[in-house]
Write a structure and sequence with these properties.
Strand order of the largest sheet: 1-3-2
Number of helices: 3
Largest sheet: 3 strands, antiparallel
Helix content: 10-25%
Strand content: 15-25%
Structural class: alpha+beta
Length: 139
C-alpha cells in the first residue's frame, strides 16, 4: 500500500452575492449543513475558518471579494501501488511514466497528494507536470 500521512488542507470559497447581509455562521449553517451552528462557531473562534486570512467573529458579515478559508485535516485513502517507473524518452520536455493502475493520475475527489503528479513532484522534484495522454488496458 502507498499511504500519505494526514495533512492540513485549505478549502477556499469566494463571496457569493446571496451571502450579502448575512453573518458568517448563518452562511455556513445554511449553505454547508454538514455541521451544527455550535461546531461552526467554535471553528471560527479557533481560527480554523477565516475570512481573507484573518480570524473573524461568527457574526461578521462577508462582503464583495472576500475569501472564506476552512483549514481541514485531510486523510487520503491508501492506494495499492508501487512506485511509478520513469521510462527513457528521447523527446526533450516529455516524461514517460509507467504507473500502477490503482494510483490516480492527478488530484481529484479524495486524492490530492497520493497521485502520480504528487509522487513525481515530491520524490523526483518534477513539478508543474501536465498529463497529456494515458494508455489504458482498453487502448
Amino acid at each position: 500500500y502507498r499511504v500519505v500521512a494526514p495533512y492540513r488542507f485549505p478549502i477556499c470559497t469566494y463571496f457569493k452575492e446571496r451571502w450579502r447581509g448575512r453573518c458568517l455562521v448563518d452562511i455556513l449553517t445554511g449553505d454547508f449543513p454538514y455541521y451544527t451552528k455550535d461546531w461552526y462557531t467554535k471553528a471560527i473562534n479557533q481560527g480554523r475558518i477565516t475570512v481573507n486570512g484573518a480570524v473573524v467573529k461568527p457574526d461578521s458579515c462577508m462582503t464583495d471579494s472576500d475569501v472564506m478559508t476552512h483549514m481541514v485535516h485531510k486523510h487520503e485513502p491508501p492506494v495499492l501501488a508501487t512506485e511509478p517507473i520513469i521510462l527513457p524518452c528521447e523527446i526533450p520536455g516529455i516524461t514517460a511514466v509507467c504507473k500502477p493502475s490503482t494510483l490516480p493520475v492527478h488530484p481529484g475527489g479524495r486524492y490530492r497528494r497520493n497521485t502520480l503528479t504528487g509522487v513525481l513532484a515530491k520524490q523526483y522534484g518534477m513539478t508543474d507536470l501536465k498529463p497529456i495522454h494515458r494508455l489504458d488496458r482498453l487502448t
